[in-house]
Input
Amino acid sequence: MCYNNRRLLHIFKALHYNSKRPIKSPDTIYIPGLNGIRAIAAWLVIISHIDQFQYLFNNESSNYYKNGLAGQAVNMFFVLSGFLITYLLLIEKNKKGVIAIKNFYIRRILRIWPLYYLVVFISILLIQQNILNGTSNNTATIFLYLFMMANVAFAFLLDIFTITPLWSVGVEEQFYLLWPHLVNKVKRPLLIFSIFIALYLLTKLTIYLIFYKSFIYSLIDYTRIDIMAMGGIGAVLIHEKRKIVKLIFHPVTQLISWGVLFYSLAFHVLRVSSLVNNEMNSIFSLVIILNVGFNPEAIIKLENRIMNYFGQISYGLYIYHTLVIYGLSVVCNALSLECPKPVTYLLTILITISIAHLSYHYFESPILKMKKRFIIVRSSN
Output
């Protein structure tokens, strides 16, 4: 595939809109396929965790979860979140000259906090009722979860089983504390974001050399703001129409990136060094995201009703699934029911989908409607 400047310009003019899906306003940005990315990432995590926690049902795991796919899927979430947040902030900055920081935080709070605190309070209640085991220091654990430091709890082995996935939400919230201010101030975002990642990796390398296999290294390993910043770099490349996008859109680049994902599905994630494995695989995830969302000639497209549906409820799928796994195991054990592996997969998936569907339509959506007053750049993603 050969791209000339006219072809690239055509791509960038069309990238904000999706002709296959009607939108209410011509000012609404819709990037096709992003819900598909969310759906893939969510299901990779769920399938891996069902396999990992088979011991709760007195079953043997197939050890599929050891391929590291769940971690790679979470990193894909990070890249996507960093990309979309940065992309919309850059458009807002161009449109208004400045980013409305207060509005940004209100939007994030309305999207993330209700479901986050719902499952936190449910888990705390289960611990108080002796249905769920606590940690070695319940006071510290509750403090960390209440103040959006679930990744710190995870790193220091103070996480609560039913809400273990919340560690990634903690990473995102900590990223948001800094990122909108950085995007708002800098004039050369590509350079500054690159320096940001380099400094983070230098810090990670230093801690790796001094404190490897300690809680300190574990903490920085579960504070992956550099991966979210990679998504930010992708947003800058698209927003500023950088020529490197032609290389990212090349069929060979796409085939390599999808090949890495399929290799991870079949065997294990690509591994070079524990120091950079997450970052390396996240680069391939970024290539996939940019092609799915912006390349009209992408090899694989994810824009369809099924992917859009699961992407729409993906936050609920991700947040609820460990709670469902644990609850299902409690019921099976209490009733002395045999739950073979296929049954655990089927029931966990069906129950998680049902809860996430109901949660999105009757709990999350009414709250999300409140975001409209604080939106500067409207996005149907």
